[in-house]
Amino acid sequence: MICQIKNSTKSNASRCWILTSTLFLLVCNNSKAQIGLGGFNAVMTVPTAHTLQDGRVAVGFGFIPKPYTVYGGPDYDNFAYFAAVGFLPGVEISLRATRALDYYLPSIGDRMASVRLRVVPETRWLPALAIGVHDVIAIQGEEGWFNALYAVATKDVHAFKFFSFGATAGYGVDWIKARAHEFNGLFGGLSFGIGGLLFVKGEYDTQRYNFGFGVSAKSLLSANLTFIDGRREHAAFGATLQYRFFRK
Amino acid sequence: MKKDKMKNDKMKRTILIFVSGFVRLMAFIAIAPLYGQSHSASLTNGDMARTQIICRELQGNLARAGFENVLCAPQNAGSIIIAYENRRYRYDITALGMVLQTASRYFSEINRLVLIIKRDDVSVIALQMAPVDLEAYVTSQITAREFEKRIRFLAINEAERMMGDAAVAASNSSFRKVDLTLQPMLNMQLGNREDPYKFKVDLLPTVSTVLARGLTTEFSLSIPLADEISFKKNESLRLYSLTLSHFLSLGRQTYLANHLGYFSGERYGLVSQAAHYFLNGNLAFHSRVDYTGFLYYADRAWFYSRLNLWTYQLGAQWRFSAYDLRASVQYGKYLFGDRGARLALGRQLGEAWLDFFAIETGDDRWIGFELGLPLFPNRRLRPQRFRLNLPEHYRFKYDYVTSDLGQQFRLAHDLAEFRGTLTANYICNHLYELRQCFLTGERVRITKTNNKSIEQP
């Protein structure tokens, strides 16, 4: 949208400002649930206690650069594509396939399923609390590259209906036998949102500190850019498209 | 003496008054019903005549709107029974909304509405509501929960008895109307070492028709468009299925279905199904027994086995009505002779659905999911003698399977899917969609009538 104020009159300027503000507010939302690079609700890579809204479906992708990759080893970039659904209120199920790019063997990648359950919804004063288990299909097997079992709490605070601040803290364990574990230990993150459109984020994923940005438009499209370990040359990114099948 | 005479006169007068009063009272009691009867009879005759006119008009309007097996009958003055079948709209709630919207122009003259919804001319669900309540809900005077409490779901046989008494002929019969449906079918095999993405795409032109009440036939061909999976890669066109199916309602929530012919999965024979619903359709017990053999046609030759395989499945399903969630458990014998259990948890997400399942049979166990997505358009062509149709949903099934165990071929007209979303709880949960359809239809109607300068009813 380009506004041309030729006469620089006050009325034109105010009209343009109102129009721009309206358009900006139209694309803004205060959606709490944001799908991260891994196909589940996350700050960027670490999970939050929010779950997808009931009946909402998200599809997307995430790219993690080497050497921070797990699947295929640290020599291959990882590309994940996923689908997640708010199966019930407070229950999020996601399916993901992670490919090691340029890997010497052709493969669809590692397939994994995750189930996340929000056990306590967020209230005015108390945070939401969720438990999650990732890579559940391979619980009995040896192929679990992304196994995780954790509990996480998230609290969002809104100021002037335009700014939001979110804090997440969680703890994961490696109780399930698997090839590799994620979020094993203390993890957490912070998020500062402007108009529900732009987010500045920072997180600790039990090994590294990451920071980045996120954008979200009308609860439909969201994207993340993450600098892993704080290094600008190691940028991870992803995007998600969401749709809700029914509205009550 | 004089005193006694006066006393007798007084007594006689009292008796006379009492007797005459008694006679008058008896006469009034005897005549009063006649007065009442004649008065009410004159009212009823007038109202019944008007109700019959409304029924005739409404039946014609619904038939013109593309609904089939439409039957509108007056039950008594101001009370109407509407039976219909929907093959016009993809979503049954939309169809119900459109029927109610069509009937709404007569709402001021109707005080009770009974709706019987059919499939293949077999009654599936019957509900009763007062138009006043619907209007109150649509205009936000009452909540969905209040409106839900005022809807009464009737037993099928009770509703059919009401309809049977009316003895009216149905309009726009669905019998012997041919549908040609072009349906794409996508199979994927993921994760093979040599080629991780293998696809098989077929086009299934399917011809189907309803021959009589509950009796349908379907003929389907398979045209391979791309095939990286099967060994029979040289196939061009082959028979996919040729079936004759019969559905029978045994009154109170019990259904039987028998299927005969050549089924997908290269099996031929007979399949028999039964289902019984309890608790407003929330609890269902179902069974399936197959007696089949192998049949395959290729290179101008038939390959077949005799009818030699009995398979069966028995199961139960529970619907958690608050979330349109269904949990089912099933035990059975499958095509490769293996026996095992299947657990499933499925959610209806509006017009889409998502089922997760886990199977343990023989020495193998696996999980998977099945997804159904609604396909464009929402409203299809009016059913005619011949209609080109598109599939309502796209189905996708994924299971992490390493063997052929636990397999069963799909039926085109599966009894398990016969009711679909036509359950009491589903309708009650989706009254907001019904309201939306009703209001949308209302807006269209008003616009049309304004354009044509027709007086609003």
Strand runs of chain A, count: 12
Name the CATH architecture of chain A: Beta Barrel
Which band does the percent of strand residues of chain A land in? over 45%
Give the number of domains of chain A: 1
Largest sheet of chain A: 12 strands, antiparallel, barrel
Let me know the average pLDDT of chain B.
84
* Computed structural class of chain B: alpha+beta
Radius of gyration of chain B: 30 Å
**What proportion of the residues of chain B form beta strands (DSSP E)?**
35-45%
Described by its quaternary structure, the protein is heterodimer
Q: Would you mind describing this structure in some detail?
A:
The complex is a heterodimer of chains A (248) and B (457). Chain A has one domain (32-244): Porin, CATH 2.40.160. Chain A is mainly beta and 248 residues long. Chain A contains 1 helix and 12 strands. In chain A, strands 1-2-3-4-5-6-7-8-9-10-11-12 form a 12-stranded antiparallel β-barrel. Chain A has one helix at 10-27, and strands at 56-64, 78-88, 91-100, 110-120, 128-134, 148-159, 163-173, 185-194, 198-204, 209-217, 221-227, 235-244. In chain B, a hairpin with a 2-residue loop joins strand 7 (197-212) and strand 8. In chain B, helix 3 packs antiparallel against helix 4 (144-150). At the A-B interface, strand 2 of A face strand 17 of B.
Describe the structure concisely for a colleague:
With 248 residues, chain A is mostly beta strands. Helices cover 7% and strands 46% of the residues of chain A.
Q: Tags for this entry?
A:
heterodimer, A: 248 residues, mainly beta, Porin, 12 strands, globular, disordered N terminus, B: 457 residues, alpha+beta, 2 domains, 15-stranded mixed sheet, 20 strands, 43% strand, disordered C terminus
SSE topology:
The complex is a heterodimer of chains A (248) and B (457).
Chain A: H1 10-27, E1 56-64, E2 78-88, E3 91-100, E4 110-120, E5 128-134, E6 148-159, E7 163-173, E8 185-194, E9 198-204, E10 209-217, E11 221-227, E12 235-244
Antiparallel strand pairs in A: 1-2, 1-12, 2-3, 3-4, 4-5, 5-6, 6-7, 7-8, 8-9, 9-10, 10-11, 11-12
Chain B: H1 2-64, E1 68-76, E2 79-85, H2 92-103, E3 112-119, E4 122-129, H3 131-138, H4 144-150, E5 152-154, H5 156-166, E6 178-190, E7 197-212, E8 215-227, E9 238-249, E10 254-263, E11 267-278, E12 283-298, E13 301-304, E14 309-320, E15 325-333, E16 339-349, E17 352-361, E18 364-374, E19 386-389, E20 393-399, H6 424-429, H7 431-451
Helix pairs in contact in B: 2-7, 3-4
